[in-house]
Task: inverse folding
């Protein structure tokens, strides 16, 4: 009996010693580049995917494409392949925690004409689970889209429009207006542009304004008549939009509209993110976010079209004309969908794109060209509605897919952040005598802005491209001060079916 007790005591001591060593090892893990190992205590977790961390090994890579990015050598470089596996029953989460580092340590590269580079440390592919998504275009034949713009601005947007409209059977009508400066497009030019866009797989028709010489706001409102006149038996939803409106996912739009009966009267949209805009222009569907009219409501507005056109001469914008017609001639009220974004906020929009929230629409991407949404969304071809989806690697690194890779230098500090709240990176615009400080109605919950390069090191999306195996993404940090080499992080995405 004493002998057995001694054995038990010895075994307990061994187990306790092992536990203490494990805690010491993982609680004070030395940081690898962009990812310390996750300690046993996990906080603010939406979803956890357990993955075994893997060692780095030398490899040879063809990096000739780097020379086309215009980044000055020497630079620091690291890359990783990601294999996504659609998993039945899995839902997209705001944040998924991965118990592995994302990148190996970076390596300095100098200018070279050699196409192949020897990298000292490469990691094997990382497998991520994603929700199941269709690999073929969805059927959007129930939707009709309308916009009014110049031929030049339409050409500037056509690749962005093709990202979500092509091969979906949804139809689009574009009223071509005369530019403020320059000459009006000829019939031949319009026909050529229509042919180019149809060759891209878009069911699109370019038309002249119903009334030549009318104001843009009048032309915008006339889209109601244009779309309803060209409706078919299956046309259920009529969507008014701007030429810089972007819909990341037709599948997601159809899922949103599936909640509503198109035979009833619905006016669906998003309001401005800034409360002062709502107070000034009204509780309405702002045009840049997309205005969705059900067939039931569109029929009523078509009947009232002439009356509304006469009454709307004082309206400031096309979306305001729609609001006045809806409120003035129906009992319909706005159905607010927060994921439809007008994007009226200014400054650094990282807090929006790094929030983990999936947008149904985006707007104003033409303003600064800092947000190439067509390239940012390219990864969706590999992993479905994964644009801006977040994965946290270790305790210090968060990937916001298609926008940024962020490292939190303090390590444990990232574990204390509430990632369910959007970071207030945008410029605040307060409203006097209002309880709403500016964006409560649109961006809450939120948390204070972090100091770049001190509390938060951000590697911003630069470009993406289709490659033989899938999609390549490039993220860049230009250095904390002048003279510091840039750091280039590259992700290669490809898809594999989950093993059965």
Result:
């Amino acid at each position: 009996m004493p002998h057995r007790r001694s054995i038990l005591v010895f075994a307990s001591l061994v187990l306790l010693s092992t536990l203490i060593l494990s805690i010491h090892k993982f609680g004070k893990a030395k940081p690898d580049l962009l990812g310390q190992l996750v300690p046993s205590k996990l906080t603010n977790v939406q979803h956890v995917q357990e993955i075994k961390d893997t060692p780095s090994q030398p490899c040879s890579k063809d990096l000739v494409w780097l020379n086309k990015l215009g980044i000055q050598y020497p630079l620091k470089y690291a890359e990783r392949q990601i294999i996504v596996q659609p998993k039945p029953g899995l839902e997209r989460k705001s944040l998924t925690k991965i118990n592995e580092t994302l990148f190996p340590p970076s390596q300095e590269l100098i200018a070279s004409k050699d196409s192949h580079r020897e990298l000292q440390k490469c990691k094997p592919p990382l497998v991520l689970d994603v929700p199941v998504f269709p690999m073929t275009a969805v059927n959007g034949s129930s939707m009709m889209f309308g916009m009014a713009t110049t031929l030049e601005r339409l050409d500037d947007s056509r690749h962005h429009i093709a990202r979500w409209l092509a091969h979906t059977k949804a139809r689009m009508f574009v009223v071509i207006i005369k530019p403020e400066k320059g000459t009006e497009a000829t019939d031949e030019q319009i026909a050529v542009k229509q042919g180019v866009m149809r060759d891209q797989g878009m069911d699109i028709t370019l038309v002249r304004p119903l009334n030549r010489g009318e104001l843009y706001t009048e032309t915008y409102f006339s889209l109601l008549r244009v779309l309803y006149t060209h409706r078919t038996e299956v046309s259920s939803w009529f969507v008014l939009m701007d030429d810089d409106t972007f819909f990341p996912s037709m599948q997601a739009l159809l899922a949103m509209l599936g909640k509503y009966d198109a035979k009833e009267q619905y006016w669906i949209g998003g309001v401005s993110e800034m409360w002062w805009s709502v107070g000034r222009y009204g509780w309405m569907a702002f045009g840049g976010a997309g205005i969705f009219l059900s067939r039931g409501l569109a029929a009523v507005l078509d009947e009232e079209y002439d009356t509304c056109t006469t009454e709307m001469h004082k309206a400031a914008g096309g979306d305001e004309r729609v609001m006045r017609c809806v409120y003035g001639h129906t009992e319909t009220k706005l159905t607010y969908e927060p994921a439809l974004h007008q994007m009226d906020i200014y400054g650094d929009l990282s807090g929006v794109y790094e929030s983990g929230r999936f947008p149904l629409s985006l707007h104003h991407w033409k303003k600064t060209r800092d947000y190439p949404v067509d390239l940012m969304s390219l990864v969706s071809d590999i992993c479905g509605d994964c644009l801006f989806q977040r994965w946290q690697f270790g305790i210090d690194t968060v990937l916001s897919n298609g926008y940024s890779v962020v490292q939190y230098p303090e390590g444990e500090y990232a574990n204390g952040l509430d990632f369910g709240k959007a970071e207030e990176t945008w410029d605040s615009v307060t409203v006097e005598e209002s309880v709403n400080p500016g964006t409560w109605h649109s961006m809450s919950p939120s948390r204070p802005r972090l100091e770049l390069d001190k509390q938060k090191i951000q590697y911003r999306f630069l470009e993406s491209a289709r490659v033989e195996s899938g999609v390549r993404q490039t993220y860049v940090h230009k250095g904390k001060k002048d003279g510091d080499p840039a750091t280039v992080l590259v992700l290669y995405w490809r898809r594999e079916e989950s093993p059965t």
About this structure: The chain has 14 helices and 24 strands.
